[in-house]
Amino acid sequence: MAKNKKQNKPFRPKARRPRGFEDRAAETLRAEARLIEAAFSVYDIHGFEPLQTPAFEFADALGKFLPDDDRPNTGVFALQDDDEQWMSLRYDLTAPLARFVAENYDALAKPYRRYQAGSVFRNEKPGPGRFREFTQCDADSVGAAGAAADAEMIMLAAEVMRAAGLKDGQYAIRVNNRKLLDGILESSGVPNTAEGAEQRLQVLRAIDKLDRLGAEGVEALLGDGREDESGDYTDGAKLNAAGIKAVLGFTTASTDNRADTIRTLEGLMGTSERGLDGVKELVQIDSILNAVGFGNDRVAYDTSIVRGLGYYTGPVFEAELLTDIRDRKGRPVRIGSVGGGGRYDDLVSRFRGQAVPATGFSFGVSRFLTALERMDALESSVKPPVVICAFDKALMGEYFKMAGELHREGIRAEVFVGAGNVTKQMKYADRRNAQVAVLMGSDEMAAGEVTLKDLYEGAKAAAAIESNEEWKSSRPAQETVARGTWVAAVKAMLADGTETNA
Which residues contribute to the annotated binding site for L-histidine? Predict the structure, then answer.
């Protein structure tokens, strides 16, 4: 009999969250929305247009992860459609943009300038600060050849830093050009052809680890390879000694002055046509930046910046935070890059078979927010709502009318619609961290009065009161006001609370 009862027991799934995915609470979502809106305001005023692409794309359209096996699950989350075509969740916002432009190419005014924010997905092993779903915010200009479009994107990145609340001196946009490194590699025996693509990518990945591994670690990755602390071995780019020296010398060729860096690079490029073309582009970008007042403190040339992705073809840049942040033990915390971008002229051509120039900027919203929080640069949070307690269910219409009066003054407010007496309602207000609770029963209604409780001041007063009798006699942080003036009284109470908390 007991066995049958066990068999008939309803299945209850365990409440659990998949690794690498996170729940985001109200404060996080509001902060994300503010940051995204700040970036959107910059893009919009510069004439860019919003776009929303779907979370799923056909796997072959994404390009980076083609279905080599039965299931294209390397790095992406994939499934088969009812017509047996593989679809994948987007791993960034750029590949879907390339598909959109190729699909609507003739109907779009070019350059096509768009901005977008949304979730992206990576089927990778999660870890600290490494999620399988996160939000990106992008701006791109497709169909824009020439250094002017790159200069504009670099300036947009700097303006986003300001819009996010950072001051000049707290950030810098660091710029390089992939063509410069191509010129160095050509001189080192790595051809700028399809045959040398994998070796060039290994070099890029090695340099991208410079801030984490230092020159010695990168030197090993440029050569035969490197074994890390865990015993894992990473195969190297197999450059010869001269090539390693040339690449490492290139990464340290920049200074804090863009003009000086340009002169140094002109000497390093020698006769490399591609390298000298990269220098020429930096000269053009520098000229535009100088014309609009973007000095070396906001935008610098940095030859150690390469961006790890292989699809960049020209200027590349990163937005780096410079502020001095310390952990609880006083040790310096390096935040580093919070976003980046560059020129990618080959992504749309995968679909059309013709060159379509493009450049863009992207930042991870969560990473940027974490950095802003450490710098105390986040805007103040949204105030908790005023809670209007429901003394008398027969007065619910009046309570909602009162909430509407607060709403029209821009004050967050809610009527308690749950179950429970006044004591439970006050506990609810405490858990909501409400500053003001509004009390009105039928007697107060008849008298044209409203009672307001300042819960913040009440908590302070309660801590100083020793006896229950004293509490009852003092009625701390509570006042009764006329129904006609209660909204002004709430505003004054909230303002006093803001000054006290400040």
Answer: 92-94, 122, 136, 140, 307, 311-312
